[in-house]
Structures are given as structure tokens and as C-alpha cells.
DNA-binding response regulator, NarL/FixJ family, contains REC and HTH domains
Amino acid sequence: MIRVLLVDDQPLIRSGFRALLDLEDDIEVVAEAGDGMEGLALAKRHLPDIALIDIRMPVLNGVEVTRRIAADPDLAGVHVVILTNYGFDEYVFDALRAGAAGFLVKDIVPEDLLHAVRVAARGDALLAPSITRRLINRYLAQPPTAGAGQGLKELTNREREAVVLVARGLSNAQIADRMAISPMTAKTHINRAMAKLHARDRAQLVVFAYESGLVTPGGF
């Protein structure tokens, strides 16, 4: 059973998402919160698998809630998915760096929301297509972040290759096919890269790939 926490200051959004999620046999909404501070407290109390968190909220915004969840060892199993009203939000990068597993726009169709919850629960990165494109364009428009490439020397050549393919949005199965290895070996390369780079999830591997210059405009 995938346990979900809803954190949004709009009751209508929460009730709509809850009504949809509660219809699924493998998903359970364990709690709702109307602001970031309440959401953080409920995350600690219920330890959900997924926290759907609005990026713009009173008391604590979604970025700060994400940062606090990621920093708390007791909440290591909580995957944060940020909700936004826009196809792009200036807080996208901060939340990814803070540890968000991905982003969804609130006008997402029901089938995609259900898929997103299940994907995030598996620990995979999740970014709405419109946000992914803007995210990539934003990174490609900037030079690599100073010092961001230091972790590259810790990676083997195969781990680097796997990180590049993760940043391109490929699944484990697709990465395995591209690298001519088994899906299990591909997953091992990815997990080892995450451990070496201290990445909370695949979304942070995407951030690293662009900030370090591992993925370049010509290489995408």
C-alpha cells in the first residue's frame, strides 16, 4: 500500500486529489495539511511513502518543507513530489536541490497523477514533461556550477554513462538496453552513483549531471 500525505493550502485541490487517490486499491491518503509547518509535522507522525506538497504555501513553502524532510534521517523513506500551478516555477531548482523527487502541475490528468504517485513510490525521478523541457533549457543556458564536477572523479566510466542516461530521462530498462547490460546491473550502477554523489534520488542525479557539465547541449 502506497501511503500519501497531501499538503496544499487550497482545500478544493486536496479534496479533489484525495477523492481520486482513495479510489485506488494500492494507494491510501493518510493525512492532509493546509500549510507547510503542519505538513512537516504530519510527515513525521505518519511517515508516508509520498508527500504531495504545494510549492507555494503559508508558514513554510514547499522548498523549505522538502529541505527539512530530506535533512531528517527519520524521513528518509518519504519521497516528495512538488505541486505547482505553472508549467514552470522559479523554485523548481531549489526544490530539486533540496531533495524533491519531482514536480507535477496541478492540472494533471487523473491517470498521470496515479502513475506519478506509483513512479515516485518506486524511488524514480518524476518531472512533468513541460517542466522537464524548461529545466533542461535552463541548465543548458548556464555554465557548469563551480565545484559541481568534483564528484565526477568518484564515478567509474559506467556509472558516469548511467548518470548521463538518467539525465536524459531513460528508464532502467532503457539504460540497460543502451549500455548492453541487464536491468539489475543498470540499477546497480545508478545506485552506486547516487551513493557516491550523496544523491537522495534520481532527480538529484539529473541536477548533478547538468550542474557538473556531465551533460552538455551537444550531448543531450
